[in-house]
Amino acid sequence: MVKVAILGACGRMGRRLGTLAHQDEHLQVVCAIEREGHEDRGKDYGRALGLADMGVKVGPTLTGHPQVIIDFTTPESTTAWVEQARDNGIALVIGTTGLGDRELDLIRSAAHQIPIVQAPNMSVGVNLLFRLVGQVAKSLGPEYDIEIVEAHHRFKKDAPSGTALGLLSSICDGIGCDARDVAVFGREGKSAERKKGQIGVHAVRVGDTVGEHTVYFGTLGETVTIGHSAHSRDTFVLGALRAARWLEGKAAGLYSMQDVLFGD
Predict the structure, then answer these.
(1) At what angle do helices 75-88 and 101-110 cross, to 10 degrees?
(2) Residue 115: CB partners within 8 Å, gap ≥ 6?
(3) Same domain (yes/no): 222, 256
(4) In DSSP terms, which residues pair with 68 in a beta bridge?
(5) Do 10 and 114 belong to one domain?
(6) Which residues does the annotation mark as catalytic?
(7) Closest CA to 93 of 164, 173, 27, 22
(8) pLDDT for res 264
(9) Secondary structure string (H, E, C) spanning the chain
(10) Are 173 and 133 in contact (CB under 8 A)?
């Protein structure tokens, strides 16, 4: 059984992580971390989730000797916890979005000492999409225009989503180009005609949309559309828990959900 700590344990993602991890016979929640001043600090985590007592108090520090920390928080919080995980020899699953170069450099450095799974999206379906879009782009060739459209809830802080950027990266890997040379983030004005080779990336923020990603491959006469819709946050949670189980016994290194799912 893998012992896990959950960061942001009483937030939207944290609550589902705690609930589904508690139901997983291969996982044991031993630590629930929440920010100072949160109304659930000091409560039994099970009670905070509306479940039976877990014997785990919601608090500010690592307890219970976890083997894996699961992080769906903020870039600032992730930075601090990567350092703590590294210093304590604890594996990490990172699903935080909006990570910048500083945070990613820290994660890469820490991965020399501990195993880390870091992905912009933990969904099994989305990670299949990552694999497919590169293959499709390569097969269709340069005559097909490519556009990425993502939609999320009104509260999402970063745009475009980490998943949209991951799709862009996968497409560029497939066709052998640099995203910095071809990406166009939104279009406006009277001279916004598409240039050959561009890849458009567009963000929609509306209501309580969990997450939708669509990639269009179009040429004169036809359009190929590949997409994924998340109906609840559980799809991300289940992927993260799968990654936590997979990390048991792994050597230090930086892994992706592609490694977890396909053994790449």
Answers:
(1) 10
(2) 91, 92, 247, 250, 251, 252, 253, 255
(3) no
(4) 4, 91
(5) yes
(6) 152, 156
(7) 27
(8) 56
(9) CEEEEECCCCCHHHHHHHHHHHHCCCEEEEEEECCCCCCCCCCEHHHHCCCCCCCCEEECCCCCCCCEEEECCCHHHHHHHHHHHHHHCCEEEECCCCCCHHHHHHHHHHCCCCEEEECCCCCHHHHHHHHHHHHHHHHHCCCCEEEEEEEECCCCCCCCCHHHHHHHHHHHHHHCCCHHHHEEECCCCCCCCCCCCCEEEEEEECCCCCEEEEEEEEECCEEEEEEEEECCCHHHHHHHHHHHHHHCCCCCEEECHHHHHHCC
(10) no
Q: Which residue ranges in the chain fall short of pLDDT 70?
A: 264
Q: Are residues 16 and 108 in the same domain?
A: yes
Domain range for 253:
2-118+233-262
Q: Are residues 226 and 238 in the same domain?
A: no
Q: How much is the pTM?
A: 0.83
Task: Map tokens 């933990």 to a residue.
Answer: 122
Pair (245, 193) in one structural domain: no
CATH number, domain of 9, equals 3.40.50.720
Q: Which two tokens stand for residue 72?
A: 């769906």
Phi-psi sector, 260: left (phi>0), alpha (psi -120 to 50), beta: alpha
Q: Would you state the pLDDT for residue 47?
A: 96
Distance separating alpha carbons of residues 43 and 233, to the nearest angstrom: 24
